[in-house]
Automatic annotation (TrEMBL):
Gene: Tmem8a
PROSITE patterns the record matches: EGF_1, EGF_2, EGF_3
Membrane topology: Multi-pass membrane protein
Domain EGF-like: 458-497
Subcellular localization, as worded in the UniProt entry: Cell membrane
Record protein name field: TMM8A factor
Length: 735
């Protein structure tokens, strides 16, 4: 046999502490057909600074779809199916780098996903630029060993094969056709090279994570051994591995045979289905009866349909897939939302999810039993949702499993007429919904019974759009798109349905009131500015108070939210007003000439607006203007002091009762803002920041000029008007 090795790599990603699924870094690989060995190379590293500590990285694996993980131990939504992901932990202690290999023999061909993340986030709000977080990097590489000339078994044809040695197992494959109800694999004439009885192990199927359903049999002696599979995966290559359990360097000769049992499907006429599709999309044509749906069948045709149902193993219902948006699909039944379900054979619906871009959402299947149409009161409609192949014998087995997949069971009855199933991140494949009527006393009394079940099936990015306390975010890794819920107001869980730590409505109202009404502390600063004739500064404080109030009213995570305009606009205006307020206050304290002060006001505001557009949360957007204004203020104070030959400001009362309290309040506010805010205490620590900053402004504003009286600007207007009148009269008299 000829083996070919291939190598696939993706760029490293910086890991994040986990608070929601968007913090997990996703890697997407495609394993080619005929792969017999898969090896992952996982490399984790960290920075070398003192802020880097020992860290544990969790890595999750899954076949067919992104892993469904729950590091925080929260609750999933009701009716959601959750199967734990396969994961390992990498520890970064004294070593700066960790390299780990993970081997998978006979892996399933198709999409494989890896998700990596750090432990739970601490919840501390860090100001960008105040501290340097330690970088933790993770990279995943994939090595595959592929067999280029894998032998193919033809159904019904016995093929002799030879196992050279126990170290070199034999790999063969067989294609499973569509509508295969069962498969039987036989191993015959097993002898060693020395014509002795042999011992071999046969492995059918490929490994899929987190769960693997490989079928293994051990054959010893000359006796033929076989293995039967119910409902093998349709239209896929099934890999079979045979390895010798004998002594080394002993060849083994075997004969292999694979046979299939066909399932004859029954369905309504395709012409009627397409006629129904045309009418439902374009409306009734002129001259038609106006009824939407298929016309009634003649009596002879109806009898032929009944006989077809008895001779077929399943009844197919035509389903149309409608792509609505990214990771958003609706399935529509051509014969109406209600389908007939009988006990003779299962009713089958195909839900196509094999485009490669459907595994990043949630598959929702809802069943509603029409109680008025049930002709048997004791009957129960049993359903099963499975991937790759349908369950064809619901009346015999209730475990809802196929050859290599454990399905998801559902049931409806007259006592419980509704059922719902949510499959989180369904794997890329053809999915099937099988329904059958089951009677408690046996199938004899169900032969003439029929139940009507209304079926709604759709693929959505986030179930229930993450509810009122969550936001559905579309995430991207290269060209692959998937969705996740970001929860707020203390809610958690996959779809933000876990209220274990949720804030009450009263707590949400209190948080909104604190964050908004604390901005009213700017009113004293505005009054002082107006009283001292600082009208431009008072206008800036009013602007800041207004937009900070309504930004925090719109920024609330709960239901107490009021947005007077776009959220991004409110946030930008709030940040701009905050920085400009600090800028104009420090420049006002410098007591430079008015013309220079107003030029600096305008020029600084334009530069601050530009820097905020580049990086709104950067610490230097606030610290840069503050430091530059402080340099101007200190230079101006030194100039005034040298000119007057004494300390400036010269009044000790100004220092003790105004400057020192104002500077103290400002430093406390900066400390609270930079080092004390967390997600839990944000609403009151940030409210304290509002109060302290606004109070410091009222203390720091300089007194008015001694030659000016309060509100003197109104008298000046009157005076100027009278002078103008006198001049005009004098000129008039001269002419």
């Amino acid at each position: 046999s000829l083996y070919v090795s291939e190598y696939f790599s993706q760029s490293a990603q910086k890991l994040s502490f986990y608070s929601w699924y968007g913090n997990a870094k996703l890697f997407h690989f495609h394993v080619p057909e005929d792969t017999v060995l898969l090896r992952w190379l996982l490399q984790a590293s960290r920075g070398k600074g003192p802020e880097c500590t020992n860290m544990e990285i969790t890595v999750h694996f899954r076949y067919g779809a992104p892993p469904v993980i729950n590091p925080l131990g929260t609750r999933f939504p009701v009716n959601a199916t959750v199967r734990p992901s396969y994961n390992i932990s990498l520890t970064l202690s004294s070593a700066v780098q960790n390299t780990t290999f993970v081997n998978v023999t006979t892996p399933a061909a198709g999409d494989w996903f890896i998700a990596a993340h750090l432990p739970e986030a601490a919840g501390r709000i860090e100001v960008k630029g105040f501290s340097t977080p330690c970088p933790y990097m993770f990279q995943a590489d994939m090595f595959v060993l592929r067999l280029t000339d894998m032998p193919v078994l033809e159904p019904g044809v016995a093929v002799p094969q030879t196992i050279v040695s126990p170290a070199k197992p034999l790999h063969v494959k067989v294609f499973v056709p569509k509508h295969a109800a069962g498969m039987r694999f036989e191993l015959r004439s097993c002898v060693t090279g020395e014509q002795k009885a042999c011992a071999v192990r046969v492995v059918l199927g490929s490994i899929t994570l987190p769960q693997s359903f490989q079928r293994i049999i051990t054959c010893t002696g000359n006796v033929n051994c076989s293995l039967a599979l119910e409902s093998p995966p349709w239209e896929k290559w099934l890999q079979i591995m045979v390895e010798s359990l004998g002594t080394a360097n002993a060849s083994v000769s075997v004969e292999m045979l694979a046979t299939f049992t066909a399932c004859r499907p029954g369905s309504t006429s395709s012409f009627i289905n397409f006629s129904s599709l045309n009418q439902s999309q374009t409306g009734p044509r002129p001259g038609s009866t106006g009824a939407v749906g298929s016309p009634p069948l003649p009596a002879g045709e109806a009898l032929r349909n009944v006989s077809t149902q008895r001779s077929s193993c399943v009844q197919n219902q035509p389903v149309v897939r409608e792509d609505l948006d990214v990771v958003s699909v609706r399935y529509r039944l051509l014969n109406g939302p209600s389908v007939p379900v009988r006990s003779i054979s299962p009713t089958l619906l195909l839900l196509n999810l094999n485009t490669g871009m459907d595994s990043g959402g949630s598959l929702v299947v809802s069943l509603l039993l029409n109680k008025t149409a049930v002709s048997l009161a004791n009957g129960t409609v049993v359903a099963c949702v499975s991937a790759a192949s349908p369950v064809l014998s619901l009346n015999a087995t209730h475990n809802c499993s196929t050859a290599f997949f454990q399905g998801y069971p559902l049931s409806v009855s007259t006592s419980s007429a509704e059922a719902m199933l949510i499959v989180l991140y369904p794997q890329t494949d053809d999915w099937f919904l099988s329904l059958q009527l089951i009677c408690p006393k046996g199938q004899g009394e169900c032969n003439t019974a029929e139940a009507k079940v209304t079926i709604f099936a759709y693929l959505t990015p986030c179930f229930n759009d993450c509810g009122p306390y969550g936001q559905c975010s579309l995430l991207r890794r290269h060209g692959y798109l998937y969705a996740g819920c970001s929860c707020k107001a203390g809610w958690g869980g996959w779809s933000c349905t876990d209220d274990t730590k949720a804030q009450s409505v009263g707590a949400q109202n209190l948080a909104t009131l604190l964050l908004t009404l604390s901005n009213l502390m700017f009113l004293p600063a505005i009054a002082v500015a107006v009283y001292r004739y600082y009208l431009v500064e008072a206008s800036v404080y009013t602007y800041t108070m207004f937009f900070s109030t309504f930004y925090h009213a719109c920024d609330q995570p709960g239901i107490a939210v009021v947005c007077i305009m776009d959220y991004d606009t409110l946030q930008y205006c709030d940040f701009l007003g905050s920085v400009v307020s600090i800028w104009v206050t420090i420049l006002c304290m410098s007591r430079v000439k008015k013309i220079l002060k107003y030029v600096l006001f305008l020029l600084g505001t334009l530069l601050i607006a530009m820097s905020l557009q580049l990086d709104r949360r950067g610490v230097w957007n606030m610290m840069g203007p503050c430091l530059f204004a402080l340099v101007i203020m200190i230079a101006a104070w030194v100039y005034h002091g040298v000119k007057r030959r004494r300390c400036y400001p010269s009044s000790w009362k100004r220092w003790v009762f105004y400057l020192l309290p104002g500077i103290t309040l400002a430093f406390i506010a900066i400390s609270v803002y930079a080092f004390m805010e967390t997600n839990e205490n944000y609403f009151y620590t940030h409210s304290i920041w509002h109060v302290l900053v606004a109070s410091s402004v009222a203390f720091l504003l300089p007194p008015r000029d001694k030659h000016k009286k309060p509100w003197a600007w109104s008298q000046k207007l009157t005076c100027r008007y009278q002078i103008c009148q006198n001049d005009r009269e004098e000129l008039y008299a001269v002419t």
